[in-house]
């Protein structure tokens, strides 16, 4: 019985070896009696599927970095920065409402373009420049101010410390406005920029909390300031990878 069991074990092992040899040779489920020399050489094997083109690969540039990365630190934010590069268009449409640019101004010291509340906030946080532009529509005027700081942390601090007001900018047919009457204001920041608006009536009447049109003009101005800063970041991000800005 022991000898018989040993013989059976030998047969099973032999069967496994035979199957392994057939599969390795690529013969499928039936063993082949042909010698290995009859298999096709590598030169005889088809290089690609008939009628199918060879795959092609296109080099795609990497996606641009986040725009905020380029406008959050003065060391990376190197694009030209002037009132002209920030407020480029004479006519703009914001949220479906058309505005006409009336005047622009640059304040290197920042404080001369801000009233007593905002001026010290800008000064103690080392404001580099304050760019202003006034836009008008339908008896309304809004001055947009973009203040430049060294980094995003400082701009965020200015937003939190904000006290009124930005000085409204007259000119280009817009009379002195928002000097001695109530007007609508906003304050925000993006990257190393803090931006402010002051909006009111060009006829000298106050814009109280019930003046929804003046309030909307202020919000439109804030939206436009954000869009201009964001565009600046997108253009620099795209240039960094050789792509077109979105």
Structure description:
- The protein is of the alpha+beta class and 246 residues long.
- It has a domain at 89-226.
- The chain contains six helices and six strands; from the N terminus they run αααββαββαββα.
- The chain has helices spanning 2-25, 67-71, 83-86, 118-124, 152-161, 212-241; strands at residues 91-94, 97-107, 129-137, 140-148, 184-190, 193-201.
- A six-stranded antiparallel sheet has the order 1-2-3-4-6-5, with helices on both faces.
- It is globular, with a radius of gyration of 36 Å.
- The chain starts with a helix and ends in a 5-residue tail after the last helix.
- Residues 25-75 are annotated as: Disordered.
Note the topology.
Elements: H1 2-25, H2 67-71, H3 83-86, E1 91-94, E2 97-107, H4 118-124, E3 129-137, E4 140-148, H5 152-161, E5 184-190, E6 193-201, H6 212-241
Antiparallel strand pairs: 1-2, 2-3, 3-4, 4-6, 5-6
Region (Disordered): 25-75
Features:
246 residues, alpha+beta, 20% strand
In short:
By secondary structure, this protein is an alpha+beta fold.
- Alpha carbon gyration radius: 36 Å
Mean of the pLDDT scores? Answer: 84
Global outline: globular
Count of helical regions: 6
Q: Note the beta-strand portion.
A: 15-25%
Secondary structure: helix percent: 25-40%
The largest β sheet comes out as:
6 strands, antiparallel
* Span between termini: 84 Å
Tell me how many strands there are: 6
Structural class: alpha+beta
What multimeric state do the chains show? single chain
H-E string: HHHEEHEEHEEH
The low-confidence parts are: 1-37
What is the strand arrangement across the widest sheet? 1-2-3-4-6-5
